[in-house]
Amino acid sequence: MKALRTRVSEISLTDHSLVNVIVHKKAIVDSDDMIDVFLAVKKMANDLPVSVLIDTRANAAITRRAWNMIEKSGTPARHKAKAIIVRSVISSRFANFLSLMKNNKYPVKQFTSELGARNWLANFEKE
Predict the structure, then answer these.
(1) Which single residue of 84, 85, 88, 90 could bond 55 by disulfide (Cβ 3.0 to 4.6 Å)?
(2) In this structure, is residue 126 part of a structural domain?
(3) Contact 81, 51 (CB under 8 A)
(4) How many other CB atoms are there within 10 angstroms of residue 37's CB atom?
(5) Chain segment 83-125, per-residue pLDDT in tens
(6) C-alpha dihedral over 115, 87, 5, 1, to 10 degrees?
(7) What's the confidence (pLDDT) of residue 44?
(8) CATH number of the domain where residue 105 is located
(9) Domain range for residue 56?
(10) Could you give the count of Cα atoms lying within 13 Å of 8 in the half-sphere of its Cβ?
């Protein structure tokens, strides 16, 4: 399947059941935009379980509600794991620490490098 585009992102599916979501530069992302993104992810995955990689490193403005959706949205039936790529090492480590205290339905972790995120998600491909 070709890549899908929303107002704020480009979404593609790899042959290894990994959905890539890349937020456009200088996009202003609100909760409605995130609903569009998650519906596109669902469509691309054909309702099969997938790992999701969301790259938010672009100079985008993401509202608090949209950010909460990025961190929490999805059901275990559709997501194996979610990796979020951010720009700041400090915010990544702080968010990962806080996620240890949350009762997530599936693993969610933040990274500052795409390679680290992809390697972590590869652990869930076998499931």
Answers:
(1) 85
(2) no
(3) yes
(4) 27
(5) 888 876 676 565 656 566 566 677 888 898 999 999 999 988 7
(6) 10
(7) 81
(8) 3.30.750
(9) 4-116
(10) 25
β-strand partners of 85: 55, 111
Whether 37 contacts 10, CB under 8 Å = no
The structure's pTM equals: 0.79
Q: What is the pLDDT of residues 56-76, one digit of tens each?
A: 888 778 888 888 887 775 655
Q: What is the pLDDT of residues 30-57, one digit of tens each?
A: 889 888 888 888 888 887 888 888 888 8
- Number of compact structural domains in the chain: 1
Alpha-carbon distances of 14 from 22, 54, 65, 90, 117, rounded to whole Å: 13, 14, 28, 30, 15
Residue 10 lies in a domain: yes
The residue whose two tokens read 């399947």 is: 1
> What is the C-alpha to C-alpha distance for residues 13 and 1, in angstroms, rounded to an integer?
7
Q: Enumerate residues 6+ apart whose C-beta is below 8 A from 33.
A: 6, 7, 8, 9, 27, 66
Instruction: Give CA–CA dist 36/103, Å, rounded.
Output: 25
In a domain, 96, yes or no: yes
In a domain, 122, yes or no: no
